[in-house]
UniProtKB/TrEMBL annotation:
<feature type="signal peptide">
    <location>
        <begin position="1"/>
        <end position="28"/>
    </location>
</feature>
<comment type="similarity">
    <text>Belongs to the alpha-class carbonic anhydrase family.</text>
</comment>
<protein>
    <recommendedName>
        <fullName>Carbonic anhydrase</fullName>
        <ecNumber>4.2.1.1</ecNumber>
    </recommendedName>
</protein>
<comment type="similarity">
    <text>Belongs to the alpha-carbonic anhydrase family.</text>
</comment>
<keyword id="KW-0732">Signal</keyword>
<dbReference type="Pfam" id="PF00194">
    <property type="entry name" value="Carb_anhydrase"/>
</dbReference>
<dbReference type="InterPro" id="IPR036398">
    <property type="entry name" value="CA_dom_sf"/>
</dbReference>
<dbReference type="InterPro" id="IPR023561">
    <property type="entry name" value="Carbonic_anhydrase_a-class"/>
</dbReference>
<dbReference type="GO" id="GO:0009570">
    <property type="term" value="C:chloroplast stroma"/>
</dbReference>
<keyword id="KW-0862">Zinc</keyword>
<feature type="domain" description="Alpha-carbonic anhydrase">
    <location>
        <begin position="31"/>
        <end position="270"/>
    </location>
</feature>
<dbReference type="InterPro" id="IPR041891">
    <property type="entry name" value="Alpha_CA_prokaryot-like"/>
</dbReference>
<dbReference type="GO" id="GO:0006730">
    <property type="term" value="P:one-carbon metabolic process"/>
</dbReference>
<dbReference type="InterPro" id="IPR001148">
    <property type="entry name" value="CA_dom"/>
</dbReference>
<keyword id="KW-0456">Lyase</keyword>
<dbReference type="GO" id="GO:0008270">
    <property type="term" value="F:zinc ion binding"/>
</dbReference>
<dbReference type="GO" id="GO:0004089">
    <property type="term" value="F:carbonate dehydratase activity"/>
</dbReference>
Length: 282
């Protein structure tokens, strides 16, 4: 009996390993898309995963891009300052597996772009930054997503963006740190009470870039109005690690690779006519 017993034990151990690993493997199979370069569901394959994601591969106005000074057209008209009408509203924070998202449950206000009012839906983070300024990539990027319903029933999207370098803690993230620590699993959500979007600090008087691009994750829908603040903020290393350690293995670096500009125009709005107009403002 020694021979069969010796053979059976390794088989039982192997079976136990498969049983233990199966839920994790099954969950991995459910991942819709990944940020792992070279993987079957990585960024270079997004456009092949679903027919409705074809723009990720075939689109000609994709995001993110590098905001090079030599491609920028300066707009000094202050009439299109980054006006917003944000207000206090109840919010929750959700672990989406590939990022952490703040969602406002009621009317949190809006921004106005070219006479159209876009209503704030939520905010989430990417690390490192998806957009670059003159070839420089930053530690973190925040996206504030706004939408308006058009006459045909479709939604048009406008994203307001802040870039962060390592330094002092970001006050907005500081408000959410304890809640983020409590949602370590994908799909977990927690109410965070009343949050004022203005606490993010994207307001009037700042220089900002604007161009027409796309969502930076599937379905990569085009026609998105991007507004990227030229004021570089700071985030602490501990806050960055908190975000990274909260998401799944396939999103430890959740920045989509740069996309071709394809002769699109990039505008730099300078409401207060700053000096050194093409340089980031720290």
């Amino acid at each position: 009996m020694k021979g069969p017993t010796k053979t059976l034990i390794p088989c039982l151990l192997l079976l136990a390993t498969i049983v233990i690993q199966y839920p994790a493997a099954a969950k991995a199979l459910e991942v819709e898309f990944s940020y792992l370069e070279g993987s079957e569901k990585g960024p270079s394959r997004w456009g092949d995963l679903k027919p409705e994601w074809a723009a990720c591969k075939n689109g000609t106005s994709q995001s993110p891009i590098d905001l090079w000074s030599r491609r920028v057209r300066v707009v000094s008209d202050s009439s299109d300052d980054l006006n917003n009408g944000y207000k206090l509203a109840t919010a929750s924070i959700l672990n989406r597996g590939h990022d952490i998202q703040v969602s406002w449950q009621s009317d949190a206000g809006s921004i106005r772009i070219n006479g159209t009012q876009f209503f704030l839906q939520g905010a989430h983070w990417h690390w490192p930054s998806e957009h670059l300024i003159n070839g420089k990539r930053y530690a973190l990027e925040l996206h504030m997503v706004h939408q308006v319903t058009q006459p045909d029933g479709s939604n048009k999207t406008a994203v307001v963006t802040a870039l962060y370098r390592l330094g002092r803690p970001d006050p907005f993230l500081s408000m959410l740190e304890e809640s983020i620590k409590e949602i370590r699993e994908e799909g977990e959500e927690k109410s965070v009470g009343v949050i004022d979007p203005s606490e993010i600090g994207l307001g009037r008087g700042h220089r900002y870039y604007r161009y027409i691009g796309s969502l930076t994750a599937p379905p990569c829908t085009e026609g998105v109005i991007w507004t990227i603040s030229n004021k570089i903020r700071t985030v602490s290393r501990e806050q960055l690690h908190l975000l990274v350690n909260s998401v799944q293995y396939y999103a430890k670096r959740n920045a989509r690779p740069l996309q071709p500009l394809h002769n699109r125009e990039i505008q730099l709005y300078a409401p207060n006519a700053y000096n050194n107009i093409n340089k980031p403002h720290y």
